[in-house]
Specification:
This protein is mainly alpha-helical. The protein has a single domain, classed as orange carotenoid protein, domain 2, CATH 1.10.2090. The chain contains eight helices and no strands. α2 packs parallel to α7 and α4 crosses α5. The longest helix is centred in the first third of the chain and has 19 residues. It is globular. It starts with a helix and ends in a 12-residue tail after the last helix.
């Protein structure tokens, strides 16, 4: 059991990196919209969701283009203050942060995915693979995906 969890976790880290930054963000959006009923209950109850919500509250008032840049910075590990804060969070807190962003997108407070956006073939294949996983594998895969995002925190920092 540990082996499959680890391999699913590692798979998430490796496979998401094959996509462009914008396609990584698109994939996370499609996972939320298509698997939200099974995935989202895990995120809000996660330890550290107050921390994730606090970071979300820093992103929410920004203009839409800046919100998108923050998400791109996190996905590409850019060395920005928010990306470093994100990078210092636990995997569960990172999942909760993406959940808050997805809810914000749904509610219109966070920049939405363009209505004409289509995942590339590699992203569609990855989404199909995620859909075929059981709940725990989906969570482990997503945890591996979001873990790799964010800049390294300054020494001594930790959330």
């Amino acid at each position: 059991m540990t082996f499959s969890t680890t391999s699913t976790y590692d798979q998430g880290k490796a496979e998401i990196q094959s996509l462009s930054v914008d396609d990584q963000l698109g994939l996370l959006w499609f996972v939320y919209t298509e698997l939200g009923k099974s995935i989202t209950p895990a995120a809000p109850g996660a330890a550290g969701s107050e921390i994730a919500e606090g970071l979300f509250e820093q992103v929410k008032p920004l203009p839409h283009e800046e919100q998108l840049q923050v998400m791109r910075d996190i996905a590409s590990k850019a060395n920005t203050e928010i990306s470093r804060m994100y990078g210092s969070m636990s995997p569960e807190t990172k999942l909760a942060f993406w959940y808050f962003l997805a809810v914000g997108m749904d509610e219109g407070t966070i920049i939405p995915v363009p209505s004409d956006y289509k995942l590339p073939e590699a992203g569609t294949a990855l989404l199909a693979k995620i859909k075929g996983m059981d709940f725990q594998q989906q969570i482990d895969f997503l945890r591996g995906t979001v873990l790799e995002m964010g800049a390294e925190a300054a020494p001594g920092a930790g959330i």
